[in-house]
Amino acid sequence: MTRSANRVLLLVAASLAGLLATPVSGAPPAAKPGTVELATLVLALMPPADSRAPVGWQVGSDQPIRWKTPGPQPLPRSPVARPDTHQRYGTVMAVVDGQPTHWLYADRSGQGKKTAGGWVVRLAGTQAAPIEANLGMDATTDNQANPIGALERAGFKLKALCQPQGAGSAVTLYRMDAPGRHTVMLVHGYSSGSAGSSQDLTLIYTKEHARRQSCM
After folding, report:
1. Which of 16, 28, 145, 155 sits at a 20 to 30 Å CA gap from 46?
2. Is the separation of the CB atoms in 187 and 194 below 8 Å?
3. Does pLDDT of 30 surpass 90?
4. Main-chain dihedrals φ then ψ at residue 78, nearest 5 degrees
5. Do 130 and 55 meet the contact criterion of CB atoms below 8 Å apart?
6. Using CA atoms, how far apart are residues 57 and 110, in angstroms rounded to an integer?
């Protein structure tokens, strides 16, 4: 084989390697150790399409969630009837495109030393199974990422079921679909005030619990 032919083969191999290394369009980048892309975390909390079994209390255990409880714990008795009697919670460092979703500052003016903000994960339901999974920002801050936009860029299909009426605070309901997962209702909560704003996402697992939700 001639030297020029060898050079052509090397160029072709390099081009193929570059194509194989290119991430799939819309897929979130690989997160740093100890963190997880928000879209990857949400996908892991959705029930698999090939399963008819209820979501279990171990959902999300393959993600870097630092669980504070090993399993479902009874909630304090309430004088008002509630659909959830047990919970499991933990914390996780969820990111968007490798960057923190929000920052915590040393003082309320947004100045001084800052640290990356995390998320609180809370599963709630009956002793048998959770009926929802909630992801909430761990602080009220400014300059936050857009979680709904992050999910849409990652390939999730979100259809708004109603339009919120609130000004500073709002709750929007979505029908959420993702490849290989059952459809779930997603509740996006947003609140804003003088100290900043906060957001949370709640995945609703049962039809009965979905009927209790409403826009605000």
Report:
1. 145
2. no
3. no
4. -115, 140
5. yes
6. 38
